[in-house]
Amino acid sequence: MIDSHCHLADEAFSADLDDVVARAMSAGLERAMVILAAGDEKEAAQAKRLLEIWPEVRVGIGVHPHQAHAFAGSPERAADVVRAQFAATPAARAIGEVGLDYHYDFSPKDVQQAVFRAQLRLARELGRPVIIHTREADEDTIAILREEGGGEVRGVLHCFTGDAALARAGLELGFYISLAGIITFPKAGALRETARMVPLDRVLTETDSPFLTPVPHRGTRNEPAHVTLVAAALADLHGLAPADLAARTTANFHTLFGP
After folding, report:
1. pLDDT of residue 141
2. What is each CA distance from 240 to 99, 153, 237, in whole angstroms?
């Protein structure tokens, strides 16, 4: 089993990182995809420590839309920062998380879009998949993926909370759909119905930890070991044994991100 998206380099895990990794391994996790904010030295240092504990970890590096404002004067500089850190990080496998977030006003929309486009062009240049964050910006996200992806950029719509139309648009672009602990929430019936329509060869599971802790651990810090609960919920939707679902999502991860 694999947690395809988590933030183990976050300070929320700095005090007990060894224990968190031990619990992940005990839960049967092969590895995790850890997301790093490009240019964040503290996260890079914790990621280095993490890789010493858990060498199988893989890394995604990108400028999140919340931080896009830092590159307002030169969106291409965001791609330069990611390119340099990617080259210096042997475990790096993806550009991300990147995308658009119109829910918060941390970065102007036009700046978010320009920084997003620059990183998609970088993904094409490097031949790497992208990890997409989209919130209340689905139409613009898909439009930019179509325009800048050029049919070449693969990736994943992470922590998917959209509707069937967004899922279909992502699938048509060749993207994977990643489900997080939200599918265990009592009021997430519509999301569960959308998740049910995603082909099993295009689905991933994640925690997005330390956020979005699944039932029955709501109210506590999330961590990679809890991806087993996401997998169990998804398996139930498809009428599969959790072990079979985990095997499929693990294979999907390797197909998208490589070794």
Report:
1. 97
2. 32, 31, 8
The pLDDT tens digits of the residues spanning 187-210 come to 999 999 999 999 999 999 999 999
Q: Which one, of 180, 220, 13, lies nearest residue 97 by Cα?
A: 180
What structural domains and CATH numbers belong to the chain? 2-257 (3.20.20.140)
**CA torsion, points 199, 129, 224, 248, in degrees to nearest 10?**
30
Please, is 102 exposed, middle or buried when counting C-beta atoms within 10 Å of its C-beta (0-12, 13-18, 19+)? middle
HEC sequence for the chain: CEEEEECCCCHHHCCCHHHHHHHHHHCCCCEEEEEEECCCHHHHHHHHHHHHHCCCCEEEEECCHHHHHHHCCCHHHHHHHHHHHHHCCCCEEEEEEEEEECCCCCCCHHHHHHHHHHHHHHHHHHCCCEEEEEECCHHHHHHHHHHHHCCCCCEEECCCCCCHHHHHHHHHCCCEEEECHHHHCCCCHHHHHHHHHCCHHHEEECCCCCCCCCCCCCCCCCCHHHHHHHHHHHHHHHCCCHHHHHHHHHHHHHHHHCC
pTM above 0.90, yes or no: yes
- As a dihedral over the C-alpha atoms of residue 200, residue 60, residue 180, residue 109, rounded to 10 degrees, the angle is -110
- pLDDT the model gives residue 117: 98
Quick one: CA torsion of 186, 191, 193, 195, rounded to 10 degrees? -120
* Structure confidence at residue 151 (pLDDT): 84
9-28 burial string, b = 16+ CB within 10 Å, else e?
bbebbeeebeebbeebbebe
